[in-house]
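Q: Two folds, back to back.
A: First:
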Amino acid sequence: MPPTKARALQAALELLGTGGIRALTHARVDARAGLPQGSTSNHFRTRSALLVGAVEELEAREAAEVAGALPPDSATGLLEVLCAQFRASTTGGRELTAARFALFVEGIGHAEVRDAVSRGRAGFEALVVPLLGRLGAAQPEVAATALMSAYEGMLLYHLARGHGPDPKPVLELVLRAALPSPSAPPR
């Protein structure tokens, strides 16, 4: 990726994570990235293109993190990975988590963003569904949806309130429901 484009995407994610969707303009991205005026629009001609670029950049980062952490060999290992990622996403990675949710919400009324978010979700499911199948889930697709929904819901709760309950019992409950008893996380 050209350095200017990478700097623009980094700045876009920072703006989304600190100021929400309204903070994202080409001019603000240029200023935040320390780029000459008009640089961002050379790579992303429209606001839609900039939003989709931000989604794709965020997804690339998250996919690399998740792929590096998976696959655990047990439900307990999966639970540990999820809890560690959750802590990272609500502390040092809080800004990127806020950017992700800003983009999710933007996707409600913006088809191109929604499609980009859906592609990212499909990529994550491609990692999680087979893992849950290997761990013994009778319905790995349903289990993945339940697990990812619980995880994202807890993230949103923590992000919106600045704190929240420990996600481990919630995620453990979902895994217990999805997996056969012998590989379920211990009590």
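A: Second:
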Amino acid sequence: MPASSRSKRVLIYSHDSFGLGHVSRCRTIANALVEADQSVSVLILSGSPMIGSYEFRSGIDFVRVPGVVKQIDTGEYDSANLRVGVEHTMEMRTRIIRDTADIFRPDLFIVDKEPLGLRGEVGPALRLLKDRGTPLVLGLRDVMDDPTALAQEWERKKIVPALRDLYDEIWIYGLPQINKPLTGIDVPPSVRHKTVYTGYLHRELPLHADIPHEIEEIDGPFILVTSGGGGDGEDLVDWVLAAYEHDPHIPYGAVIVFGPFMSATAREAFKDRAAKFKNIRTLTFTNNLGALMQRAAGVVAMGGYNTFCEILSFDKKAIIVPRTRPRLEQFIRARAARNIGLVEMLDADKGRDPQAMATALRQLPQQGLPSDVVVPGLLDGLGNVWRLVAKQLMHPHRGPASLDAGEGSAEPAPDPAPNSVGVPPVRART
């Protein structure tokens, strides 16, 4: 069957052990791909328990692998729900990922953030598809971690050989003016040559965006407070509520979205405190944070990648309160964005003084907008990603189905020829 008369298949992997960031980014990309070309089908491999809560466009489906959870303090993993050891869970995940890749036979495989997957679980699928000639792409967010910590992590996980021998392209969903995530990593020139900065991923509201009824009761402008998934957002919410308790005359109300992974104990305690204020409303989760953000006078957030993209997309004045554990990712992003005038930042590590937060909340409406700062290509990510995908799908190569094949043990492939993307994103010079 000629390529033009059949669907084009894209497989996306996201390990999703904690929070909402990975699944949200993959969903955004998948929706953009099927909207750009109705012959494209996208299958997402995810461990997120929340993936079924999101709406996807026609042409997208997902396979949910058994979940694991990351312990914040130790960074170790455990089975999320199954009463089996984490090693058993990882074995199941690895087999499901490889068999899905085998049966789905994608024309393109995009791996989000973790080059070999959680504990190497995507390695067998990568080797299988590499043997078939399927293009393999690694998608990285704009900031990974402190360069020294990332270099040590990647050395331990043997990541650089995978970048060199397995992947055809590396897409960075950001701009070098803000951060170069491979800084400090000793990679060969071939890896840097196949790296492309796309710009940030623009977000839009769905056609029928529901507004949570909680905000209808707020009289006047409000500030949206979001801690992402919420698993590590207790300090942010506590600080904001302490500011209102310290200064009950802050002129703007607040809508606080806890996130689905915040503990029930903390959530209930925060609800009790918020209930004392007629202009504060709380939500556990919304699958359409953008609708709230569009209505908000400003945003207070921890500054994960997806929230940052939404702040830019909806052009909102924002205060970022980045976490610094277990990674410095949010702090590095917030500091860089503040330095060029896109957002303001409060450093919680310097102390969570209620007066400091109250002052920031009062000043938030007087801040400049992100759009006041001219950064060429800032939100061009989705358009450039589609051009990169379309280039790979021009000559699809699935290879034969091999349901009972081994994992694939090909020798490492030589470095690919230089790519010529035909789009204007900035080439990496990290």
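Q: And?
A: The chain is about 35% helix and 15% strand.
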